[in-house]
Amino acid sequence: MRRTVVVLLVALSLIFAPSIAWAAGTWAWPVVGPIVRGFDPPTSPFGSGHRGIDIAAATSTVLVAPEAGQVTFAGPVGGELFVTIDHGDGVRSTMSWLSSILVRRNDLVERGQPVAVSGHGHAALETPHVHLGVRLGETYVDPLDYLGPPEVSSFVRLAPWDDGA
What 3-state DSSP class applies to 148? Predict the structure, then answer.
């Protein structure tokens, strides 16, 4: 019992750590993990920057639709796999650096529905991850403005710790 409580307290401290600015939105996370690279908006449409966030995820992790919508693109771009979902009102999300795609163009998807499987991510980062980008019209916006806080149940397991004692 004591170890279960300790594990829970450690997990809660990770959730509410002051260095993490959790999202203010309502979307589901496509995968729960730490952000290994944040949003860095470009100063011009073709300028440098990072047009989304990179979320750490083990290679071959199933990714889910963050919100209901229609798949507008599912395929390769420059040899890498991408999935884009139109959520209505000019809002689109894109997941990239995938190892496989579970949906097709024009499919209607529900929030939380599996849509892809993660790959390794950007070659420049050692940590395997998925890139999540969000556009409002033609402007890239911070995905954290749309994502809600992750549910504790997605990464905390309340079960006895069997240490052989």
Answer: coil
CATH number at residue 135: 2.70.70.10
Cα 41 from Cα 48, distance rounded (Å): 8
State the residue range of the domain holding 68: 23-151
Q: Which letter does DSSP use for residue 138 in this model?
A: T
**Contact call for residues 98 and 82 (beta carbons, < 8 A):** yes
Residue-level pLDDT at 40 = 86
Q: How far apart are CA 26 and CA 30, in angstroms?
A: 12
Contact 39, 23 (CB under 8 A): no
Name 132's bridge partners: 53, 95
Q: Which single residue is written with the structure tokens 């509410």?
A: 16
Distance of alpha carbon 110 from the chain centroid = 16
Reported in sequence order, the residue ranges of 78-120 that DSSP labels E, i.e. its strands, are 80-86, 91-101, 108-109, 114-118
pLDDT per position as a tens digit, 51-106? 889 999 999 999 999 999 999 999 999 999 999 999 999 999 999 999 999 999 99
Identify whether 5 is part of a domain.
Answer: no
